[in-house]
Write a structure and sequence with these properties.
2 copies of one chain form a homodimer. Chain A is α/β, with parallel strands linked by helices. Helices cover about 25% and strands about 25% of the residues of chain A. In chain A, the strands form 4 sheets. In chain A, strands 5-6-4-14-15-16-13-17 form an 8-stranded mixed beta sheet, with helices on both faces. A 6-stranded mixed beta sheet of chain A has the order 8-2-1-12-19-18, with helices on one face. Chain A has a 3-stranded antiparallel beta sheet with strand order 9-10-11, with no helix packed on it. The radius of gyration of chain A is 21 Å and the shape is globular. The mean pLDDT of chain A is about 90. The interface of A and B includes residues 247, 306, 307, 316 and 318 of A.
């Protein structure tokens, strides 16, 4: 990998700003489609994607009434397994896709009523769900607290090991010929003299390594997308960081796995989830905090996550606290991603995936490569173009 | 520093096994007294001393009736400031001695009654104590929970930054000419042919670097002391590891200090303490676990420490969780240290300091150097010689 400040490419078919799972998935698929791709990221391999539970869950409470977002999530979920299978086949590495499903549990009748409403909504979207009483929940997960009132098993809500997945994407991208520049895209450059309506991109400026010439640029910089100059008015302020803190627990040597399914619960009004990994880790997440670009791990958040995890699965107190971490999800005003062409011509956005970056990565790569190669993305993406956040000259 | 496996010294006046605060303090003072010192530690700079709050508190509930231990603790406390001052003067580095004192708080009348008994005991030992009502406690520490029933200020219970202190000791030892071998002492070697009564040490065997010849050996290997072969029967099993987990919290940028005094409290039957550092850290400790040589950080312990800290000082939830760590205190059957000459001749033990290694380090160095130079240690050490754990041939 070239050192910072050494420019490896002066031109490319497409430059991708951002090397999280979204940018890397696009880079891989674009290179596989025959494009000459340069990916620029100052901290490649160290994106928000590392701080994730990797849940592939298309429906949550937040989605009541958000039909368009539900449809694109379902598209993403349907696409994920074949994408992951190809990734595993290309790289020879497992990405830790787990198909045991998700068990959502309720602690009292009120929680259970809310869960029942969600279940009806999910069924209306064609998703499987199986109601379980307390005893049946504990039969599925024997370490579950006896305080559980009941639950619902969602067999189609899977999970993937986000770190293995991201690493495999980087490997596949490299094998497909993607060149990586460890530098930050500061600006999307447009052709001189073009007026607003006909402007086209001509490349990007990097913080330390000069410029890369390209007539196609993809901004996939997650919560940092707004820091890229040259984006149309309105788009730079459309993405904000939403801080999430999570924990990585690990089984001590010799302790058999305490968890098989992903568990979701609401404890003291806060959602908590526990996601098992094949290698003996259990991810506990996650806070949602509007604190700007703050990546500190706080005592209160770690306390609450541990408390909530132990409320659901008391045996987690015996696990090793292997890591505490914080990441920034790219949130948008309507909670939907921003995927599609934006003016100037040749500029593509693929950002704002909020809590669903891992889930949506495969489908987003498909949509982006369609745009880059002159085809139309799947119709589910239509409501999520950058146009909805564009402001006219003079507006804020 | 020489690489592992490269022996720097074939002979020395004294070899010290163990480079925690005890071994390093002895090494410094012995070298300053003119002895040629080699200190052997496979992980020099990475001892249990790093996982400590650095409280200089000579009296706790455990000491009721343990008059001899109290006396040696008081000796250690009296010696500490001049020792630290000399260390700061020699190295030019501050060791973070804080003289604000310790505020012990009680949450209910029962806690307060226990605290009152402790206070009477401390006064009988000549230590200052000032009873405070809830309002007065909160006047001293404005972030203290309003739930506090009352407290006692112990102005003479100070603290030191254990990491700065240990680093300064290493620097002072190096400046005094102490040579360090990054290897483990596996055995204390005795002179061939000597019978039990007249045996004398002739050096040590190292795990990877051969032998060092020396007619004086100090075993200061903390909870690993029992792993050294060649110690008299009974002594190898006298020291056991007592696991302690603690947290290092840090103020976010711009937040003024939330704590001035060390705070001690009992929450749900468990002692918790919060110790402020000059550099904006707050140490929260500590668990006491009999789990053998286990250094894992567990979810349950971190939860409990955070919970207890937030119960005492709610604002700690806003602090950054900078580090979680676990260390092994060298415990003994009677909770007292093991300091003094043991057979064979020339063998000195300085271990078993349990929870008070930092506090006792200066006085232990004095006692050890007295033994090494043929003088008598202070009489307070008399009850803490290795002899009390010796077993006769045939006994277990």
């Amino acid at each position: 990998m070239p050192a910072k400040g050494v420019l490896v490419a002066v031109t490319a078919d497409v430059v991708i700003a951002g090397g999280g799972v979204i940018g890397t998935a696009i880079a891989w698929r674009a290179a596989a489609a025959g494009l000459d791709v340069v990916l620029a990221d100052p901290a490649y391999g160290d994106a928000a994607s590392l701080v994730a539970a990797g849940m592939l869950a298309p429906v949550s409470e937040a989605l009541f009434g958000e039909g368009a977002l539900l449809r694109v999530n379902l598209l993403a979920l349907a696409r994920f397994p074949s994408f992951a299978a190809e990734l595993e086949q290309v790289t020879g590495h497992r990405v830790g896709l787990r198909r045991e499903g998700t068990l959502a549990v309720a602690f009292d009748a009120g929680d259970y009523a809310a869960l029942t409403r969600l279940t009806a909504f999910r069924r209306s979207a064609g998703l499987e769900a199986e109601e379980l009483d307390s005893r049946a929940c504990r039969k599925l997960e024997s370490f579950l607290t006896p305080d559980v009132h009941g639950g619902v098993l969602f067999p189609g809500d899977w999970s993937v090991d986000n770190r293995r997945y991201a690493a495999a994407l980087r490997e596949a991208a490299a094998a497909a010929g993607v060149r990586v520049v460890r530098d930050r895209v500061t600006e999307v450059l447009t052709a001189d003299g073009a007026d607003d309506a006909n402007a086209r991109v001509r490349g990007v400026a990097l913080a330390e390594s000069g410029e890369i010439g390209s007539d196609r640029v993809v901004v996939a910089a997650g919560s940092w997308s707004g820091a890229v100059h040259g984006l149309p008015a309105g788009l730079r302020s459309a993405v904000r960081p939403v801080k999430g803190q999570l924990l990585r627990l690990r089984h001590p040597d010799g302790m058999p796995p305490v968890l098989t399914h992903t568990i979701r619960a609401t404890v003291r009004g806060a959602d908590v989830y526990l996601v098992p990994r094949a290698d003996g880790e259990v991810i506990v997440g996650a806070t949602q905090e509007e604190r700007g670009p703050d990546l500190t791990v706080t005592a209160g958040a770690v306390h609450d996550l541990l408390h909530d995890a132990m409320s659901v699965l008391p045996v987690t107190s015996e696990l090793i606290l292997a890591e505490t971490c914080a990441g920034l999800r790219p949130g948008t005003p309507d909670n939907g991603p921003i995927v599609g062409d934006a003016g100037p011509g040749g500029l593509l956005l693929a950002t704002g995936h909020y809590r669903n970056g891992i889930l949506m990565s495969a489908a987003t790569a498909d949509a982006a490569v369609a745009c880059l190669t002159g085809r139309a993305p799947a119709p589910e993406w239509e409501p999520f173009g950058p146009g909805r956040f564009l402001t006219r000259q003079g507006e804020r």
